[in-house]
Specification:
By secondary structure, the chain is of the alpha/beta class. Among the domains are: about 220 residues, Cobalamin-binding domain (Rossmann fold), CATH 3.40.50.280; about 100 residues, Transcription Regulator spoIIAA (2-Layer Sandwich), CATH 3.30.750. The protein is built from 21 helices and 17 strands. Strands 2-1-3-4-5-6 form a six-stranded mixed sheet, with helices on one face. Helix 10 links the parallel strand 12 and strand 13. Helix 14 runs parallel beside helix 16 and helix 18 packs across helix 19. The radius of gyration is 24 Å and the shape is globular. The mean pLDDT is about 90.
Length: about 600
């Protein structure tokens, strides 16, 4: 690898950018607990790039962990690179200020490696936009041998084909140990004078969680992928997710950066459990982030104390896919409450699962923020919860919510999805009925109803889940669901119930992209060149632009989203981690009420 020249744009940023943007604090760096090494003193420089603005990026726990892990290596450094908002990007392009890091204000192309954390399919255009702002070609085949290595991880790595032409290397699975092994290999390659292509081949050969798209090609039947072929005989055809061996002692920032700008999650965030004991059939994370591992109560309390005294945050959030299933949650809340209640620090417990344990929690939550209780119910009817493998009973749900009311909670937020297989109109209407009943339940405790919010999203069939073979419901189905929910609310005069909806078109695009092949790379690039960016933001999302981009390449976004697959049919993501297909297929057949016969090729 070629030694990268180091270039700082500190003066240009201070004089020609910061005075002209709405929120300059997004771009200045220098926060409390920032780590800033001398770039010339380390062998490997990594730019950790999050394809969204500062307030979102600084709330991402995975990014904070990688920042800590890399900076603990004496021979490596990590600096943060975030997406500039529209006003800053316009100024940067006008003044020809390239994408830069926050710590040293180095140009992005000063780093050996630029690593992207990709959490959602709708951040792909930001990936391209950031590469372009860095002065790099968006396609890996067009980049120069001396350009930084572009790697990506996060959720998108398990369904990477649509962005494969833009990324040199994907890291699948959990990053704490994987990134160290990758950087050690890069360090060795740099010392031995490897070219970028030699390093990529060595990484593909030796690291089972690494996917190098340029080393594979697809054989197609018409326009659809039929078989994946490796260009070298000694690289695997199936990539495995990296799993963390020692979660208890895994690196965690003891002194997290304290942002200058209020972020989405402006608090201490502690991951208490990784993976999920449940297997909700729509959830990619529960199937890909295995096995389940727990952090001990003592370790969590220790980390909470250290992070509090190093940050001063007044809220501690206990993070996991399903916090209510942490086996020692009662003991943990008791110990945290005993220490932090005198300091007026609140405990936030998101992601609660409604089981017997939920009935006991409100008794312990004397210092928990009581403005509202959030529960992921997903389906309003018990039979549909069985379909999605989330066995919550109405009895447990009502008992748990009543206990919360008795403990002082005044509002409840419930998460639902519409579009599950086997769903009926009655199941959809039950969302309003259930929320109305839960609102009125508080009358027994406080003499007035609770405020209940139903957050309704639209099912996106995800790769590596039992629903990966199923097409998404058409837009008309979701529009009808939205309409009848509103009519039901009016019919019941459920003034205490508020219904919020996700954008249907955004969910359609997510479904089309998530299970796509490399053919979609042309669509993504076309959409970006036509102005698509920040597609997760209402202010900038433009669905007709995406429809035009699909049409420009002979595709229809609705047909791609609704496309179904048959068992045994080649899937463009099957080689990218996740469970075995036979295991997922058994789950799918059970959801549809079909017999457990893997050999049976009956349509699903």
């Amino acid at each position: 690898m070629i030694e990268r020249p180091i270039q700082s744009v500190k003066e240009q940023v201070s004089r020609r950018l910061l005075p002209f943007v709405r929120k300059p604090a997004r771009y200045i760096g220098g926060e409390i607990n920032q780590i800033c090494k001398d770039p010339a003193s380390v062998e490997v420089r990594v730019g950790l790039c999050f394809p969204d603005i500062y307030e979102i990026a600084m709330s991402h726990t995975g990014l904070a962990i990688l920042y800590e892990v890399i900076n603990r290596l004496p021979w490596a450094s990590a600096e943060r690179i975030f997406a500039p908002w529209l006003d800053a990007e316009e100024r940067m392009r006008t003044e020809r200020i390239p994408l830069f890091s926050l710590e040293s204000r180095l140009t992005a192309d000063s780093f050996d490696i630029i690593g992207f954390s990709l959490t959602n399919e709708l951040c792909y255009t930001n990936l391209l936009n950031l590469l372009d702002l860095a002065g790099l070609a968006v396609r890996s085949e067009h980049r120069r041998p001396g350009d930084p290595l572009i790697i990506a991880g996060g959720q998108a790595a398990n369904c990477a084909e649509p962005i494969a032409p833009f990324v040199d290397l994907f890291v699948l699975g959990q990053g704490e140990e994987a990134v160290v092994r990758l950087l050690e290999l890069y360090q060795q390659g740099k010392r031995h004078g490897f070219s970028k292509s030699e390093f990529l081949l060595q990484a593909a050969r030796t690291l089972p969680f690494v996917y190098v798209p340029s080393l594979y090609e697809w054989e197609c039947e018409g326009t659809h992928p039929a078989a994946l072929r490796a260009k070298h005989p000694d690289i695997p055809l199936r990539i495995r997710d990296a799993a963390l061996d020692d979660f208890e002692n895994a690196p965690v920032p003891e002194a997290p950066i304290v942002p200058f700008v209020q972020t989405v999650h402006d608090r201490i965030t502690l991951e208490i459990m990784r993976g999920c004991p449940g297997r909700c059939r729509f959830c990619q994370a529960s199937f890909c982030r295995r096995p389940v591992r727990y952090r001990s109560v003592g370790r969590i309390v220790e980390l909470a104390q250290k992070q509090y005294w190093n940050t001063g945050h007044d809220t501690i959030s206990l993070l996991s896919l399903s916090t209510g299933e942490y086996p020692w949650l009662e003991e943990l809340v008791e110990q945290l409450t005993a220490y932090f209640r005198p300091l007026h620090v609140g405990i936030s417990i998101p992601s609660l699962r409604v089981q017997q344990q939920l009935r006991l929690l409100p008794k312990l939550m004397t210092s928990v923020r009581k403005s509202g209780l959030t529960i992921a119910v997903e389906a309003a009817s018990e039979h549909l919860r069985q379909v999605i493998n989330k066995p919550i009973s109405d009895a447990d749900l009502f008992a748990g919510v009543q206990a919360a009311y008795e403990a002082g909670f005044q509002s409840v937020k419930l998460y639902f999805m519409v579009g599950f297989p086997g769903e009926t109109e009655a199941d959809i209407l039950q969302i309003v009925d259930l929320c109305s009943a839960l609102a009125q339940l508080r009358r027994q405790v406080a003499g007035r109803p609770a405020s209940v919010t139903a957050s309704v999203s639209w099912l996106v069939p995800k790769p590596h889940t039992p629903f990966q073979w199923l097409g998404q419901k058409p837009i008309g189905y979701f529009e009808h669901a939205r309409r009848i929910l509103l009519e039901r609310k009016q019919q019941l005069r459920a003034g205490a119930v508020q219904i919020k909806y996700h954008t249907i078109e955004r969910s359609i695009l997510e479904a089309a992209m998530g299970r796509g092949s490399r053919r979609l790379a042309d669509v993504i690039e076309t959409a970006w060149r036509q102005g698509a960016k920040f597609d997760l933001w209402d202010e900038t999302f433009d669905f007709p632009r995406w429809q035009n981009a699909f049409a420009a390449h002979g595709l229809d976004v609705h047909q791609e989203a609704q496309r179904s697959f048959q068992p045994g049919q080649p899937l463009s993501w099957a080689h990218l981690g996740g469970p075995e297909e036979s295991y997922l297929l058994r789950h799918c057949r059970r959801a549809l009420g079909l017999p457990d016969s893997v050999e049976d090729k009956t349509n699903i």
